[in-house]
Design brief:
Layout: E1 2-3, E2 8-14, H1 16-26, H2 30-48, E3 56-62, E4 70-75, E5 80-84, H3 101-105, E6 110-116, E7 123-128, H4 135-145, E8 150-158, E9 164-174, H5 182-191, H6 196-201, H7 206-213, E10 219-220, H8 235-243, H9 247-255, E11 260-263, E12 270-273, H10 275-286
Antiparallel strand pairs: 1-10, 2-9, 3-4, 3-6, 4-5, 6-7, 8-9, 11-12
The structure holds zinc ion.
């Protein structure tokens, strides 16, 4: 959604299905579902905003909290995948009675962003964690690393049975040439809006939410996309990862009569290799 005068652009996403899939794969506890869900939502929006079909974005959050590192990767269509180092963390609700995402993520560390355009050097940026609540950290990344005034909202509602009830987010950015009062107007509108997860839960569509965010800017719909949780792992990629290992370790693995297994961090798919397959791999590698 873009303002008629081109001064502001808003990307809004209902990521309920995407985050629900992440919870099913990783069996995350409620607070990690919220933390990872927010990061996946942000990555999906940032990915969809990239130009170029082969582009991707990796967002890594490492605040030394009990959830460990959180990683989300998205392609330029907005399809995303991710994981948390420690998927099960139990924390009491914070003083607002909400899931303590900041407590799970931690605040002693960095938010890192890698934008890979499929050619040339990837763009890399890193900022100290601002709050550990994810949305503020994304805002801080854009302000410091890309110098783009940004407002970001991310939210995940988790049901008592740990399934995902609603998830979504939006990213509003002021474009060069925006009027001096544009930032104030945006902040005022956004400040008066209910939490994003609540709006999604009340069945507001991303278009309706984006129109509300850009209220007063005469918003126009630019594009609509469907996104999903999507992993890109293949057996060939696992083989390449094996070949990148220390050769002695790989030879040792090939001696194990039970064979070896590798599990994809992003989708938990298990790839099994027999000793014979590993020996063929070793043989081909020496060619
Ligand atoms: Zn996978």
């Amino acid at each position: 959604m873009i303002a008629a005068d081109g001064s502001a652009v808003c990307h809004c996403l209902d990521s309920t299905d995407l985050v629900a899939r992440a919870e099913q794969i990783h069996r995350t506890s409620a607070v990690v579902t919220a933390a990872l869900g927010r990061l996946l939502t942000a990555a999906s929006i940032m990915g969809a905003a990239l130009k170029g079909e082969n582009s991707s974005v990796t967002v890594r959050l490492n605040g030394k909290g009990p959830a460990g590192s959180l990683i989300a990767v998205a392609d330029s269509a907005g399809n995303a995948r991710g994981y948390a180092q420690n998927p099960v963390v139990e924390l009491p609700l914070n003083r607002y009675g909400k899931l303590d995402v900041r407590g799970a993520v931690g605040t002693d560390g960095f938010l890192g962003v890698i934008k890979d355009f499929g050619f040339g050097e990837p763009y890399m940026g890193q900022v100290p964690i601002a709050s550990g609540e994810v949305a503020e950290d994304i805002t801080s990344y854009y302000a410091v690393s890309e110098q783009i005034p940004t407002v970001c909202a991310l939210g995940v509602l988790v049901n008592p049975d740990l399934t995902v009830r609603a998830a979504g987010g939006y990213l509003v950015q002021l474009l060069p040439g925006a009027a001096d009062d544009a930032a104030d107007r945006l902040e005022k509108t956004v400040g008066a809006m209910p939490p994003i997860s609540q709006m999604i839960d009340r069945a507001m569509t991303p278009e309706q939410i984006a129109r509300r965010v850009l209220d007063g800017f005469e918003p126009e719909l630019l594009e609509e996309k469907q996104v999903e949780y999507r992993c890109t792992c293949t057996r060939e990629r696992v083989e390449r990862a094996f070949l990148a290992m220390n050769r002695a370790d790989l030879e040792e693995m090939a001696q194990d009569p039970k064979g070896s297994e590798a599990c994809c961090h992003f989708c938990n798919k298990v790839y099994h290799f027999t000793p014979e397959e590993l020996k063929i791999l070793l043989k081909n590698a020496t060619k």
